[in-house]
Amino acid sequence: MAEQKTVLTPIPGVFYRKPAPDKDVYVKEGDAVKTGDVIALVEVMKNFYEIKAETEGVLAQFFVEDEDLLDAGQEIAVIIEQ
Amino acid sequence: MIKVINPGLQTTVQDHGRIGHYEVGMPPSGAMDKYSYLASNLLVGNKDHAAVLEITYMGPVLEFQQDVNVAITGGEMPPKINGQSVPMWETLAIKAGDVLSFDFIKQGARVYLAVAGGIDVPLIMESRSTYTLCGIGGFEGRALQAGDELKIGGENESEIAVGTRISDELIPTFSKTNEIRVVLGLCSYRLTEESKERFFSIDWTVTPEANRVGYRFKGERLNFVEREQPFGAGSNPSNVVDLGYPIGSIQVPDGVEPIALLNDAVTGGGYATICTIISTDLDKMAQIKTNEKVRFVAVDIHEALEIRKEYQGKINQMKQQVLGHKGGVKNG
């Protein structure tokens, strides 16, 4: 059975799905991801922290919108392990 | 020696601060949550002013190359030695080769790591605190980076038994909604009565621009009393003739987004400061994260002094527990 892994942000801040405003998103919903792939950025105190996949699978869904303000520990996406 | 494997998000060397140079524009820097800072030094037998690591939001991974006692206090960020959970607010023994790491932050924003002897970096203007904006103090004037090696100093004065802990009633807890007490002034007369009332009656949200320099809040626009621009003041209604900014003072440039100035902030300027956070609540402010809520509560100077007395009492109680072993919880 496929396991679901929730991706959390360890820090609070602004959520970005793109590496830069004029670039494509890191991953689209339904894309395959490998362990260590960057899936989003969180910006706080002028630092950009990379959120990485900690498992291999399909990124099924993002729970937050681009540029949302996140709490520390908030769920941001779910990966279905393959 | 302590080797930095991973620095965390922003980890800096801090002590009680670079005090006494405010008039030349030098802010004090130093540990933002002084109570937790003092507790960490106390638990490893350090002098009050020894330098520690201040860790913000995400913990570092540190490899110790010598045996040493450590203590971790502040917000709740569960620490681990070689992957095994260890308690905060307690004297811990580290062996050469041990790796200290942390889980996600659960409560608060900043954690203090004291090592017996203190972090040994050069004294700059009588302080080891890092002031990153000017690139002075601490470890090469900056936040730690992977590969840095920290020396341990000789700032300890007493032997504290491993397992000594601060009792629960003296350990602060932190929440996502906070009351921060302020004394009104120096330039509160510039706000309209209505805006003054609104300032104290709404929840302000901490924006991502919240660091050691200051915290910026989102809420609603505040308005200033109409006036004729005085000689020497800027043209914006939020401007006054330049004044010294108290630490913890709150200004509202152009009436949008109040800013609380903290340990690394500019020491003076031309914005009306509408109130000042009382010293004990600066500790609380330091433990508030981006996207959390703050309600400001006005107290007068007498109440503020009374609150400070209580706070000093708690610190004395903590000292007695750890140094006097009176009522201290020992489980080592």
TrEMBL record, chain A:
PROSITE patterns: BIOTINYL_LIPOYL (PS50968). It comes from the Bacteria. Pathway: Lipid metabolism; fatty acid biosynthesis. Pfam families: Biotin_lipoyl. InterPro entries: AcCoA_biotinCC (IPR001249), Biotin_Carboxyl_Carrier/Decarb (IPR050709), Biotin_lipoyl (IPR000089), Single_hybrid_motif (IPR011053). Residues 4-80 form the Lipoyl-binding domain. Keywords: Biotin, Fatty acid biosynthesis, Fatty acid metabolism, Lipid biosynthesis, Lipid metabolism. This protein is a component of the acetyl coenzyme A carboxylase complex; first, biotin carboxylase catalyzes the carboxylation of the carrier protein and then the transcarboxylase transfers the carboxyl group to form malonyl-CoA. This is Biotin carboxyl carrier protein of acetyl-CoA carboxylase. It comes from Cytobacillus citreus.
TrEMBL record, chain B:
SMART domains: AHS2. SUPFAM superfamilies: Cyclophilin-like. InterPro entries: CT_A_B, Cyclophilin-like_dom_sf, PxpC. Keywords: ATP-binding, Hydrolase, Nucleotide-binding. Signal peptide: none annotated. Residues 23-314 form the Carboxyltransferase domain. It comes from the Bacteria. NCBIfam families: urea_amlyse_rel. This is Biotin-dependent carboxyltransferase.
